[in-house]
Amino acid sequence: MTEAQLRDDLVRLAKSLFERGFSVGSAGNISVRVADGLLITPTNSCLGFLDADRISKLDRDGRHVAGDPPSKEVFLHRAFYETRPATGAVVHLHSTGATALSCLADVDADDCIPPLTPYVVMRVGTVKLLPYFRPGDASAGDLIRGLNGAHAAVLLANHGPVVAGADLRSTVQAAEELEETAKLLVLLQGQRVRLLSADQVQALRGAFGGPPTP
Ligand SMILES: O=C(CO)COP(=O)(O)O
Ligand SMILES: [Zn+2]
């Protein structure tokens, strides 16, 4: 894909997320890898109303070279690109279900989106809960780097999910899948839930094109 096509795709997919309520106000940010660096949504921009020509561009060293000033969460994105070489796109949202789950006191930090349904296993894999940091605090990027590429997605406590994937479309879909499963988990709070068994999870790993490879 050319850079122009990637810019258009980013605008289109961000708008779709916004219109379906996965993002409100100026919450969330999306990046995509290009031949000579990274495109990322500008800071304080609304995902529903991006301008392809004003999307921020960073060079391979993370220097801002074009467009509006980049998202203040750029280090979350760069941490995934650096530790998971197959990463072609990263999506960060404040989507309701995932953010609600990130605020619950007794979530298993090592597996905060347990295998409730097949698609979250196939498209997202095991999600780690990271502690709360002020938005824009680079320490969250250090923690992602510390995972050494073992997870395609993390949940930032009291904040929201960050998902990495091979390309824009599959990463947006994985973020949607994570959100829907988080919503179900919140909906089922306090009820006895039957999770998929270890064998069932194993049979899904690598099935139908997923989960994302590091
Ligand atoms: O989600 C956000 C902060 O966590 C939005 O920040 P930016 O507007 O800087 O991308
Ligand atoms: Zn955020």
Automatic annotation (TrEMBL):
Its EC number is 4.1.1.104. Catalyzes the decarboxylation of 3-oxo-tetronate 4-phosphate to dihydroxyacetone phosphate (DHAP) and CO(2). This is 3-oxo-tetronate 4-phosphate decarboxylase. Residues 8-186 form the Class II aldolase/adducin N-terminal domain. It is an enzyme of class 4 (lyase). One of its GO terms (molecular function) is aldehyde-lyase activity. GO terms for cellular component: cytosol. InterPro entries: Aldolase_class_II_sugar_metab, Aldolase_II/adducin_N, Aldolase_II/adducin_N_sf, OtnC. SMART domains: Aldolase_II. Keywords: Carbohydrate metabolism, Lyase, Metal-binding, Zinc. Belongs to the aldolase class II family. AraD/FucA subfamily. It holds the Pfam family Aldolase_II. SUPFAM superfamilies: AraD/HMP-PK domain-like (SSF53639). GO terms for biological process: pentose catabolic process. It catalyses: 3-dehydro-4-O-phospho-L-erythronate + H(+) = dihydroxyacetone phosphate + CO2; 3-dehydro-4-O-phospho-D-erythronate + H(+) = dihydroxyacetone phosphate + CO2. NCBIfam families: OxoTetrPhDc, PRK08130.1. It comes from Siculibacillus lacustris. Its cofactor is Zn(2+). PANTHER family: 3-OXO-TETRONATE 4-PHOSPHATE DECARBOXYLASE-RELATED, FUCULOSE PHOSPHATE ALDOLASE.
